[in-house]
Amino acid sequence: MPHVNGLRCKECGTDYPIEPLYVCDFCFGPLEVTYDYDAVSRSISRASIERGPATLWRYADLLPAGASNAVDIGAGLTPLLKADNLGEVLGLDNLWIKNDTANPTHSFKDRVVSVAATKTLEFGFDTLACPSTGNLAGATAAHGRKAKLNTMVFVPHDLESAKINMAAIFGSVILVRGNYDDVNRLCSELADERRWAFVNVNMRPYYSEGSKSLGFELAEQLGWRAPRHIVVPVASGSLLTKVWKGLREFTDLDLIDDSPTSMHVAQAEGCSPVARAVQEGDSHPRPVVPNTVAKSLAIGSPADGYYSAKIATESGGRGCIVPEEDVAAGIRLLAETEGIFAETAGGVVISALKQLAESGAISRDEETVALITGSGLKTMDAVADSIRVTTIDADVRSFDEMMLGAVA
Ligand SMILES: *Cc1c(COP(=O)(O)O)cnc(C)c1O
Ligand SMILES: [Zn+2]
User: Fold this and answer.
1) 234 ligand 1 Cβ < 6 A
2) What is the pTM of this model?
3) Per-domain residue ranges for the chain?
4) Are strands 319-322 and 95-99 parallel, antiparallel or unpaired?
5) How sure is the predictor about 406, in pLDDT bands with cuts at 50, 70 and 90?
């Protein structure tokens, strides 16, 4: 972490040293990593990044942990795909899909955990832990193994079984009777009592910086420029704020030109506090009790809800509330047009994108990136209704009969 200055309160600006701290003693505001940007600008260039590893660690100059001892199982540098088929359906000529299902544990959470786990080793903790809505559990458990740390992940008891199993193959999973907000509260209490690294609690300032890499990659993969629109699935709001921060940093370091990007919030109706706040011009999202098929986005009291609503509003982004029945429709539309199988959060993003295209908020020629942050294999139940398969005998007659039946 060559260029890190320290931590700073986002509210009152009080400075803190680089420690496992996350809230301001004076105003309870969240703490954020600050950098020595003069030093960064002397060592970073498009060429230095392009020479770097094919993971998020190519952006180490703007991350808060050292690349030399990185806990690296290959997170980041996922494909950015031109989505012409989907674009044709939606009336968008310049549409891209950022496919973060291609990460090692099949969600963008590998990005944040790779950074948090590296910082955990630097601080000398022996246990890596988290409260999770699902994807974070698998990412934390996997990176914990690679780092030879104990792992302890806490999830709501009614989580999809694929997400539970994905984490359990690597480490200890604890099912908590309650929703994510209950799990999070429990972990905040445990974090005060134990010397454990909770990636998204006491390690949150470092963890969240990992999401900047998604913004850096978009810009690099587009040929060093920022897109006009980004559609972001929102749970705690951290991803949206950090993709934005990443683009600001690249702009300020002259790695890309200064051009406007609107950040759109995508949430499912059953948990849409941030999208609603943006729609109603209300900067403080009102907490809700989540009841949605998009479990990875089911945070009723989003820690970065205020900041994400503010960025969306100030950047000209919209708040998109996707009806619950449109979540599976969005998954299917992406699968049928682009050959990508997204989880429910991706269904939310694609249906939000459709709303934005139909309402004219995104116009035909404007460059747009939709963030697909997790794999559909983890949320099979959501599309079970629409899956059709046929069984035949191993002879041609049986096959011909089936074909006739399909035509009839
Ligand atoms: C966690 C998660 C998000 C949103 O993350 P936040 O940073 O908490 O807003 C989006 N998509 C998927 C698949 C996730 O697991
Ligand atoms: Zn403060």
Assistant:
1) yes
2) 0.96
3) 1-43, 80-105+208-386
4) unpaired
5) confident
